[in-house]
Amino acid sequence: MTGGDGERARSFGSAAGRYGEYRPSYPEALVDVLEETSGVTVSGARVADVGAGTGIATGLLYERGARVVGVEPGAGMAAEFRRRHPHVPLVRGDGNRLPFASGSLDLLTYAQSWHWTDPARSGPEALRVLRPGGALAVWSNDPDVAVEWIAGQQARIEERFGPGWYVNEHPGSQDGLEFTTRLLHWSRRIPVDVHLAKLGTHSLFLIGRPGTDAFLAEEREHLLRLFPEGSVPEHYVVDLRVARVGQPKRPWT
Q1: Which residue spans within 60-121 are E strands per DSSP?
Q2: Pick the CATH number of 3-141+169-189+236-244 from 3.40.50.150, 3.30.479.30, 3.50.50.60, 3.20.20.100
Q3: pLDDT for 170-208, tens place per residue?
């Protein structure tokens, strides 16, 4: 993680309440596809959700019966997690040095958080803590830029603030980890002001870049011209990537 990335990662603590309020969850079908792709039944599985934030994904796994623990490095996010999910265990830590015994987990998940790790460290750590036959699952809610108005908004943000505002890098194959990718399209309709509040929880808008408040005000006027009824149809693509950990080879007899 570079210095700039570190600043962005730390920026979420001050906005933990807004993050929990406005960031979207995931479609219910995600857990079904996760089970199908990973070969792990979520109910009863030993799961760690790393970079848990306010617990959006952790709560989803808990509701499906997982024996899940959240892992979160930030104090602000951890406090909001505990407020929203008082019955779900949480430990402070990050993916570069996981606080779990080797081979102790059935499933290791990263929702919107893999890009804050150093893959040269988080990859080997995943292999260490997962049991043979377990799986690493990394996913994100990405704006669906195939939708015209969303592509337009992305272009306006990049024109004003430059490329790279949307921080999200998907994992690639590395030693011991070969990923299978599944894409899930879904949408929700929300008020324009809720959409802008959600946009304001992205790191670009939290680190105090000059002009972000003015941009959001201008964007509100633009969206109300596009959607005079006052609500916008947000479209997302959940990019799910799953790597299974191989079973140990049987010795010759």
Answers
A1: 67-71, 90-91, 105-111
A2: 3.40.50.150
A3: 787 776 789 999 999 999 999 999 999 999 888 888 776
